Amino acid sequence: MNDQALTDAFYAHVMGGGKVEADDWMPDDYRAALLKFVEMHANSELMGVLPEREWILRAPTLRRKLALTSKVQDEVGHAQLLYRVAEDLGKPREQMLADLLAGKTKFHNVFHYPTRSWGDVGIIAWLVDAAAIVSQQALRDSSYAPYARTMKKICWEESVHIMHGRDVVLTLMNGTDAQRAMVQEALDRWWGPLMQMHGPKTDPATDRDLIWKIKSKHNEQLRQEFLSIYVPRILELGLTIPDPALRYDQAEGRWQYTEPDWDELRSVVTGHGPMSQQRLEFRRTSRDDTQWVRDAIIGPATVAAA
Amino acid sequence: MSEPQDRVWEVFRQEAEGDPMVHGGSVRAPDEELALHYAREFYGRRQESHRLWVVARDSIVELDDPDLLDPPFDRSHKRPGGYIIKHKLEAAKARAATTGAPEVEE
Ligand SMILES: [Fe+2]
Ligand SMILES: [Fe+2]
């Protein structure tokens, strides 16, 4: 088969629901699109722990401290698993970390914001993780099988995070007026970023990631799914969602809402969010601080290989 | 920044005693001792694994040739589903009923 015939056969295979393994031949544009997608996902898991880690030392009880530490460990673990998937596509991990720290690659918008109270810890673990799990569940059908398998494992761990977050929120909601107000205030700040998180509506007919089944659902589908599951769960606690236009349109069978601020999304993910630079700086510092560990582990092997 | 001299290790896990070893994923590590530590962190920290194996990826020998694994010949005689007996059994029973089956001695 010549290159064009191979390429045609490849796309017919994935568009027909076929799977691809790491060692299989794949066209360069599929590989590039897949790598970009997985790399951003990995970056988001890695950067996503920073807002939460700020609260480990301030957790109200030992059990909460253990749960939060464990969640942070899980998310870094997700980053490791995803960088593993990405490196098999040909980009070295060191290069991915360097590009992230240099601001050349992106991470999800929600991790560019500050955390202001313990209420944020509950809202992040419950709703940010929920919005993320909606997309991650759809990725279990990815045409790239190593990614799909990794998603199965990650989704299983994410479900624990959501329970932890919901438990934090419920505990506060059953507490004092001040605690309820704390949750409401956190929700008010996080709602905008949550609505932006899945990205603007795209045309499914021209979305290559969708056509090649790298992902299986488009942005608006994911947002609608998130709203369908979580709006009732938020409202039943007596919380108010800060969008007066939010309502389920029976006739159209979909949620209506105020158009999210896409300019804010674009500016935030390109490194202009309120905490973008501090978070990257923290990651740079910790990378330098832990260099001796990598040297200690990798040093002898380097010598042996030389 | 030197590129680490790591190898890729495939991780297999057994969920409970007696279960098959199932592929879990892979880790990257300079040696098998560290590979096992990573495997434990990624695939066993929630008590979800009874046993873990790590195997260097370059030690795995693979066969995925469809000519050998999925040849275009009829192999139904090798599978239980290749034997469709419903109608034959009905016919045999009907025949036995009309000709009278021998009594089974107690
Ligand atoms: Fe995660
Ligand atoms: Fe999570």
Structure description:
The complex is a heterodimer of chains A (306) and B (106). By secondary structure, chain A is mostly helical. Helices cover 67% and strands 2% of the residues of chain A. Chain A has a single domain, classed as Up-down Bundle (Ferritin), CATH 1.20.1260. Chain A has twelve helices and two strands. In chain A, helix 2 packs antiparallel against helix 3 (62-87), helix 3 runs antiparallel to helix 6 (145-173) and helix 5 (118-138) packs parallel to helix 7. Chain B is α+β, with helices and mostly antiparallel strands and 106 residues long. Chain B has two domains: 4-59, Roll (Ubiquitin-like (UB roll)); 74-99, no CATH class. Chain B is 28% helix and 21% strand. Chain B is built from three helices and three strands, in the order ββαβαα. Chain B has helices spanning 32-43, 66-69, 86-99; strands spanning 7-14, 22-29, 51-56. A three-stranded antiparallel β-sheet of chain B has the order 2-1-3, with helices on one face. Chain B is elongated. The complex binds fe (ii) ion (2 copies). Residues 75, 129, 158, 161 of chain A line the site of one fe (ii) ion.
Summarize the structure in short.
The complex is a heterodimer of chains A (306) and B (106). By secondary structure, chain A is mostly helical.
Bound molecules: fe (ii) ion
Q: What's the helix-strand series of chain B? A: EEHEHH
| Oligomerization state | heterodimer
Low-confidence segments of chain A: 301-306
CATH topology descriptor of chain A: Ferritin
Q: CATH homologous superfamily name of chain A?
A: Ferritin, core subunit, four-helix bundle
Number of helices, where a helix is a run of at least 4 consecutive DSSP H or I residues of chain A: 12
Number of strands of chain A: 2
CATH class of chain A: Mainly Alpha
State Rg of chain A.
21 Å
The portion of residues assigned to helices of chain B is 25-40%
How do the strands of the widest beta sheet of chain A line up side by side? 1-2
Percent of sequence in beta strands of chain B: 15-25%
